[in-house]
């Protein structure tokens, strides 16, 4: 099955996006396959709302494993299938916590096996921080590296998230200016805005 990797800085909304997107596709109960950095694996069966409470939160580096949801949606007489993998937030430099360093390394190694890369950016922070200067801690050197790598693969898309918050429009416009409108989709993981466009993109690779 093809893999769609959801990647980006910590706290940008990767986990919430995965869970709400699965719900948008009609899944109510999620089978979440967890791959730990120590090589152990675990499967959790969760309702979407419970998963949101458990797996997503305001603290940075809430996610420290690869968490995959198998998306399976009817298409005529068969099913479209795709793996949606949530990852550990990436940061620049060497993180002081060894466990987070390991988790980031696991995330980076998963990049090579992904057909679709969904690079999530906090557009609200990007637009609010930079106030037109073009510099923001919401777009880090690691984002430049991800964008460079991603653009060499067919399935790369930037998700300008948190579009429901103030400042996000300016952040989205900055991203479009830099990468072109076709590469950037404005979304709200919280409210489901933009999910139709993301669905069209990922199903092309399913
Ligand atoms: N308003 C708003 N809040 C959002 C949105 N997406 C995520 N959030 C909030 O942002 C915080 C971080 O969301 P997560 O989904 O846990 O972010 P993450 O990127 O998985 O974070 P880590 O696992 O820590 O790297 C949570 O408090 C979410 O409720 C959005 O579209 N709009
Ligand atoms: Mg997370």
UniProtKB/TrEMBL annotation:
A GO molecular function annotation here is: GTP binding
The G domain extends over: 6-152
Q: Which Gene3D superfamilies match?
A: P-loop containing nucleotide triphosphate hydrolases
Pfam families, per the entry: MMR_HSR1
**UniProt protein name:** 50S ribosome-binding GTPase
